[in-house]
Transcription termination factor FttA (Methanocorpusculum parvum), 1272 residues
Amino acid sequence: MQVEDRLKELKVTINKKVPRGVTVTDVEFEGPEMVIYTDDPKRFAEDHDLIKTLARDLRKRIVVRPNILGDTEEAYDMIKAVVPETAGITDIFFDTDTGEVLIEAEKPGVVIGKNGSTLRDITMKTGWTPKAARTPPIPSVTIKQVRQYLRESRDERKEFLRRCGKRIHRDSIYTGRDHDQWLRMTTLGCCRQVGRAAFLLSTPESKVLIDCGESPGATGAASSPYLNVPEIYPFNNLDAVVLTHAHLDHSAFIPLLFRYGYDGPVYTTPATRDLATMLQLDYLDVNNKEDRAPPYSSNEIREFVKHTIALGYGDVTDIAPDMKLTLHNAGHILGSAIAHFNVGNGVYNVAFTGDLFYGKSRLFNPAVSQFPRLESLIIESTYGGSDDFSPSRVEAEERLYEVINETLGRGGKVLIPAFAVGRSQELMLAIEEGMRNNRIPKCKVYLDGMIKEATAMHTAYPEYLNTDLRNLIFRDNYNPFLAECFEQVDSYDKRQQVIFSEDPCVIISTSGMMNGGPVIEYLSNLAESPKNMIIFVGYQAEGTYGRRIQKGWREVPIGKRGTIVINMEIQTVEGFSGHADRKQLMNYVQYVQPKPERVFTIHGEESKTIDFASSIYKKFHIQTVSPQNLETYRLV
Amino acid sequence: MQVEDRLKELKVTINKKVPRGVTVTDVEFEGPEMVIYTDDPKRFAEDHDLIKTLARDLRKRIVVRPNILGDTEEAYDMIKAVVPETAGITDIFFDTDTGEVLIEAEKPGVVIGKNGSTLRDITMKTGWTPKAARTPPIPSVTIKQVRQYLRESRDERKEFLRRCGKRIHRDSIYTGRDHDQWLRMTTLGCCRQVGRAAFLLSTPESKVLIDCGESPGATGAASSPYLNVPEIYPFNNLDAVVLTHAHLDHSAFIPLLFRYGYDGPVYTTPATRDLATMLQLDYLDVNNKEDRAPPYSSNEIREFVKHTIALGYGDVTDIAPDMKLTLHNAGHILGSAIAHFNVGNGVYNVAFTGDLFYGKSRLFNPAVSQFPRLESLIIESTYGGSDDFSPSRVEAEERLYEVINETLGRGGKVLIPAFAVGRSQELMLAIEEGMRNNRIPKCKVYLDGMIKEATAMHTAYPEYLNTDLRNLIFRDNYNPFLAECFEQVDSYDKRQQVIFSEDPCVIISTSGMMNGGPVIEYLSNLAESPKNMIIFVGYQAEGTYGRRIQKGWREVPIGKRGTIVINMEIQTVEGFSGHADRKQLMNYVQYVQPKPERVFTIHGEESKTIDFASSIYKKFHIQTVSPQNLETYRLV
Ligand SMILES: [Zn+2]
Ligand SMILES: [Zn+2]
Ligand SMILES: [Zn+2]
Ligand SMILES: [Zn+2]
Ligand SMILES: [Zn+2]
């Protein structure tokens, strides 16, 4: 049956199931959801079981939306009029995907009103479903920009969601007994290397790409996944793209897909959408600054945002006629997810860990390791080598304090190259606590690159942070990210001032592998003096300047800047990585439920993926594969 | 540089290298060859080193052809006039691909003339290069038909060869250092099963399909390889198809490629081309008789013939800018070949054994096991299980004689289902010798199905037979295939006569796995009497009637014919297979030179490919893979 006919039938069925007097005027697939349009949204709202029953009977994610969604400008004025000024509204964002309006205010309680009376009032008057949220303590330019993109593309997005919904709910082609079913995974990058993550899942029915990142430190064709092989090309054959997290080694080439014909959805968490947008915009910026022609423009980043379908952890979502996707916390960075696929009505289940941290960090809970079903696990191996044991976070912090004390004590400056997202916040929290508890002297901690912006996003998405930190910020009203030691560097002049000031200080700057970004500026000025210190706290990929310096190069040719002679001290403090170490990785495989039949080790140097795979086989008797790039494995 | 410019340059270069007075008027790529057109073919013919030197300097296969190739009809008359009538000319075949004319005669010596004088005379008068051959003792309808196809499509074929030549010699796209090279093998069938052989080799530059067969006994989608996956589709992206041998599990779906857009070359031996044509035509026939819609028509078989580029064993041939192919004797059936690929100027070498016999049989020499280079070996595993030891050919013949004696002794008929190609001829030779040496009583040996035709082709291509047999036929002038015990069944009446005669006899009939063909007719009439006997001498695939009867089914439902009750005796005589047994397979891996880095075991039931692979690993410490269908492995 065609989708249109199915929708007509569904409308008849639903109208029979709803109470007398309630009219369902329209049923539409919009993205993965089935939207029921009605004149009586309140009847649905009152009878909560009604939606639940419908969802269960029809096996769909159901959303009820009023026929008349007030014009957003009128609604805006209405909300401003209804909510008392004391609420301190800072932003009103209309999400036309969901019919919800997000009201950010200094005092969200005032927006809600006594027993929710103000919210109800808003619904009655505007048709929109209001949600009140606390204004993030640090404003994020990126979130503002993303909301702006979504606002501008409202109509286009509606059209996109309906088209996408119809595609997801299309009829299966291969249902005959005659047809033999299969599920394949193709590796387009990230095998026996760290970088350019890209994996394809395909069945006779559908094709899904997981991640599409760059290879840090690589140039030319080697920097991107293999996107011109017939398995993936042309891109408009893809049903979906799934993004595990925002780091560029997973996200950098997603906008490129839109340049070359992709026009479908990108499933990811809202936090990843926003963080990835920030990192992609910066990626363009760095490319431009380094005189490399970027492979796409900000237009394609906007396309990425417009085509994102944001999912919360745990939402089970139809993404193709024979595939359901669920994202789960991966513990790695804000919004990072393990992508779990249920294929062919549960016939086969496969999880891609993306990048993983399987322990409690200052920021996040450990990665989820319980799944309803699981046959294949595709797991990262950054620290999968047999020697890759990291010290505990506590030991790491001790060591960090030690190195900082030493450097500050001799009047030097500490330069910490760090990914803007994840490690920087972890370091900030450690350093802030160290100063608060007098473990290290009080001094300025300068943040350069996108660290402040990334931090702002952490406070805008508190639901991803672990309970302790959330409590500290919202219950105890102490936001460590706002501590006065932190100072943003946002201009050339300011950077020069930091560099040439006499005062010892700590500088946390991007990029984390020193392959671009303001950290290079600091390096070239601070390298000369043996009083200064670089502390490496994260993984340095082969081919990056960071790796070279870490390995002991004392003369580093940095493109057109010439050669930097390095006299400053180099230290590596292990234990701050956002990646599980060998012990955590083995624990993860041991504790993951249910026990998978097969484990693929990826996202690691060749020797590490192979060693990790063979250790898993020896210890747990699970079939393992350490695939190469450009291979295809049959899962079913 | 474009191919056209390259050809112009080559013409200039060659004209500088040839002796004064010789003019090269044109240089063309035709298929894998570089053809030099000249008005002085005799000067080239005289100075044999000239072509050799040119070939070495230009690193091309060079053919010299006179500008004026006489009109074939005039040349025909001329040859008839020049050659004395006593030669007994039976066929004159002009091969426009090569400029050769094949003169088949009862007395080829008379065609050659004293010291080759008659041949020289023909060259002078016609421009064609004559070759004399002995008229095959049994005329082959198929060979006649194939020559007819080629004759009819002369102009089209010229156009095809030039187009194909330009494609082979096109410029490489990926030559930059930036580009990383790879070689991949994709399994489209024949993994963990016997049947539907189809493998794809691909590089950034080119794509080659090896075999494209059916799965005997399977129906619907499962009977053909996976031809609708993006790795292979669309077919016009293929650079070449290589056919290892004629059996339908390797050749049946090659004509289908032409129906769906393929328009390139099929590289194979001349014998395989002709045998495959016969088997494909029969495949259509059987499909029609069984009321199954055949997937293509005889038009596509004609396309297959027209697009064939015939290669002899050992010819090193450019088939793509970065691939050279060499076919080597596989010992399995007439014309069967191991396909050896040299990729990227020797960077990587991979051999597909096709079906293999690694011992001397009555018909052929053992498979070739020496290669200039070899990194990966893809080897068949039909009898790769740890118990798959066959008796020697001598033991097998003893046992065959025993069972025949027993049956004839009790007045019964012996029915031997056999592939038309290979096993039938092996049996004929054994039975004929048995009768000649009085090991079994003299009786009629009826041949039904295409066995006679297949036998005819064996005598038309004596160069593929082993030395003993060739000597027997041509030196000792005794052709065992013509022994008087053999009698062809070529009509319904004749078949009924054989079935209902009182005389004991032996019947060899197709198909070899009893999934169609006249053998079914014999079975349904002979099954009733316990005096009669079926002897299985070849592999019976899962799902075929042969397998069921062999397993002991005593009531066999045969489609619309109803159920056959089987009272006749069933015996399996092992040792006649055209496939290497476990011992031969292990020997092959042991003796193959050079030792490959990796072995893939295919063309065998799941347990056998796995067992064979793990035994190779244990015994020879070579990395092994037992791939599944639809997987891709990275070789480089
Ligand atoms: Zn990451
Ligand atoms: Zn990563
Ligand atoms: Zn065969
Ligand atoms: Zn075969
Ligand atoms: Zn053609």
Notes: The mean pLDDT of chain A is 92. The pocket of zinc ion (ligand 2) is lined by residues A 247, 249-250, 355, 603 (CB under 6 Å). The first helix of chain A runs from residue 3 to 17.
